[in-house]
Amino acid sequence: MKLLLTGGCGFIGSAVVRHLLRHTDHIIVNVDKMTYAASEEALEDARTDRRHVLIRADIADAAAMRQVFTTHQPDAVMHLAAESHVDRSIDGPADFVQTNVVGTFILLEAARAYYEALDAGRKAVFRFHHVSTDEVFGALEADDPPFCETTPYDPRSPYSASKAASDHLVRAWQHTYKLPTIVSNTCNNYGPWQFPEKLIPLVTLNALEGKELPVYGDGSNMRDWLFVEDHAAALVRVVEQGKPGETYAIGGRQPRTNLQVVKAICAHLDSRVPDPAGKRERLIRFVTDRPGHDFRYEIDPTRTEGALAWKAPHDFEAGLAKTIDWYLANTAWWRSVRAARYAGQRLGAKTERAA
Ligand code: NAD
Q1: Taking the complete model, does pTM exceed 0.90, yes or no?
Q2: N or C: which end of the chain has fewer CB within 10 A?
Q3: Given 32, 83, 134, 197, the catalytic residue
Q4: What sign does the dihedral 283-286-290-292 (CA atoms) show?
Q5: Is residue 96 in some structural domain?
Q6: Which amino acids bring their CB within 6 angstroms of ligand 1?
Q7: pLDDT per residue over 220-274, tens digit each?
Q8: Which domain holds residue 30?
Q9: Rounded to whole angstroms, how far apart are CA atoms 147 and 138?
Q10: CATH code, 34
Q11: Residue 134 lies in a domain
Q12: Helix (H) or strand (E) holding 287
């Protein structure tokens, strides 16, 4: 297949590109605006692989998106491009509405015009796979059953509201225009190349540098953690085997409180790189909670595991060890990202927050 993949220089998108090149014969047309969250280095071997082409473009640019479809004639779309950081959506929601809602609308319209002109054979294989989050389902109490494909939507943050809006648009294009769409909703991802504003890399790097480890509230907020390479493998199965009109809830069955996550990072770092000043848990600081902070997210992936014959291979401890070891081995990358932030070139000043 020739896949049109959006956001392929982001954290999850680049993992999908790497997975596709290592494990399939597919060709990848990677459309990315190259925002602050993008990293061309994360493409690794793809940068020189002839099965991958990078196009710098904004998904909200209708003429550019029409041109991409006309020029490259993809067999399927994997749509990952988004503004993705909740704290940023609280500080400045406009970009989230523009990319996540308007951008998805523009991409759907370009896909629809292209799809309608395909012959019956190519129509039969075409898929528009939209990658979304479990945050669209709202928050769970401690005893609630996990989210699944039929959980009603209840988004609470500007980020999750913009993703919910895009999910609704995608399903509407299926029902109204018969565009063959698929939605997947996934829990918190972690792994190599994650931008150091997100919880696991932020805490890892702060702990390495002996800085305070800020934890929102009392640290009891709970998330379900999925290793990014396991997610990438699941997404490729969705686009290859998923049924149009279906939703796939993808989860790792690894719920942990934020405090458990931070303590696990400290323990792994202490074993790898002991700190002469003492155990790193001493650096934990409880800070004022995020406004409207959802208490718990958790996915029940039972249906997806059965439908796609997929199950996340990594438990949290195994995935976390690989992740931390990757950050220890790739200091040049994260130091340059952090240096750019401190120089004010790529990031606003309000992002030094955590769990
Ligand atoms: P990311 O922020 O790391 O990467 C997003 C990528 O999209 C970047 O490369 C960026 O340059 C690109 N992009 C942003 N706006 C664009 C635009 N207007 N046009 C073209 N490209 C644009 O995000 P991520 O963590 O890799 O998430 C990928 C997708 O997965 C998102 O849709 C997100 O909502 C979803 N998701 C993420 C998680 C998670 O834990 N990271 C969990 C569930 C779902």
Answers
A1: yes
A2: N
A3: 134
A4: positive
A5: yes
A6: 6-7, 9-13, 31-35, 37-38, 58-60, 80-84, 99, 103, 131, 133, 163, 186, 188-189, 195
A7: 999 999 999 999 999 999 999 999 999 999 999 999 999 999 999 999 999 999 9
A8: 2-191+226-252+295-314
A9: 9
A10: 3.40.50.720
A11: yes
A12: strand 284-287
